[in-house]
Structure formats: structure tokens, C-alpha cells
Amino acid sequence: MTSQPLEEGQVSSRSDGTILEACDLTKSYRLGSRDVEALRGVSLKVRRGEFVALMGPSGSGKSTLLQLLGGLDRPTSGEVVLDGQVISRLGDAQATRLRREKTGFVFQFFNLIPLLDVYENVALPFTIAGEDPRRGDAAARIRDVLEILDLVGREHNRPDQLSAGEQQRVALARALVSRPAILLADEPTGNLDYASGGEILDELWRSCDELGQTIVLVTHDARAAAQADRVLVVGDGKIRDEIELGRRTDRRAGPLIARLAQLGL
Q: Does domain 18-262 have CATH number 2.60.40.1180?
């Protein structure tokens, strides 16, 4: 699991299919008169087309890790390499561009723009990039993702006219429409009921299995983590264990829960 720090300007090899790599990440925060270590030397690799879950209780460091992996925050030390670029060394403008071009984000709270309808919310990545979302390849991609996520017929609805599950499907469509190199999802079912949460998990799995989308999912829920090919158990700012599940159609949480129990987790 450990990796050597990268030399200046060096990028890690892609010969093993790695699309995302973290090398000895640490993250400290100042809290009053003391420093709190949120991450303590985390290293990991994610292969292209893989579905990886970061699982752990609240306060374990998993959401902090996801923010570093996506370039939303910078590590205190260590490196993050995304699709061949050392994102943790980029300036703010370069990091923003890399995030826009390479990543899609889905969060627990949907972060939709209330005054925009479904089509306009999904089209935001193109609008921000200065492209016309009603024409050409952008329009074709939006049509495709609306169909995949069963949002056809809802294009002109505003978020307040949708159920919570539908709003999260819109957020997922927005994250997928630009065909990002990697999708980062932070507790995407945490604000949904059981049935709606299950639908979102099914859609995430399908996007990986059928479209080849690389996914890193943060969750405390074994049902969500059981969708993944591999589960990294995070605790006290470190990766405590790694559980290989493999790609499978039967994604019940029972086998994962049994394995966690064997590990005393």
C-alpha cells in the first residue's frame, strides 16, 4: 500500500492502470491551541474503471481524504497524482481546471441551483466551460445521461418539484455528463430514504460496470460499501484494512459485514 514520494515534476507510471494515487498523505488542522491530525500517512492506488469504497465511522478521516484526492483541499504533506498530474502541487487556477476536466463530485446534499431546471443543472459543466449545452456533442451527452438516469420528461422541472431521490439523480447526471476520469462521491445516499438510496447505489454501480466509470465512494454504510470492487477501511486517519470484493452482480452487504466482523470492525 505504501508508495515512495515523487520527485519534482515526476508523475507515477500508468502501466498498471492506475488513474489516482495518494502517496503518504497527512493533513493537520489547528484546533485552539493544538494540532489535530486528520490523516496520518495514507497511501493508496485506484485503477481505471475500478469502484473503491472508503468506509469508516464519522471522524475517521475518510471525507478529508476524498477532498484531498479530488483537489478540493491540499495535504499538509504527501502527494496526490490524478491521471498523471500531481494535483497537490498545482496552483489554484490549475487545480480548478484539472478538477473541472477530470473529476465529477456527488455529495450528500445535492447542491443543485434552485432557479435552474433539470436540464440546466445537468448542463452546468458545459455552461461553465463556455459551451452551448443545447448544441452538438454537449446536447448529445446531456440527452444520454438524462436517459440513463431515468430523468427524461423531467428536463423542465426545478429542484423543488422533484423528490429527494430525483434530485440526487440530477446531481449524479451533472457529475457524469462530462465523462470525468473519476467520480468522487461523499455519502451520496446519506440524505435519502432506504429505497431512494438503493436506486442511487444501483446507478453508481451501473455507471462503473456498463460505462467503465472510475468511482471512489465515501460511506459509513455497509450497504453502500458493498457496491464496490474493493473496500478500504479508514480509522483514526489511516487505512486500517483492505477488503477485496470483486465485481459482482450480487452486491448484498452480508458478506462484507461478516468480513468486517472477522476483522473486529
A: no
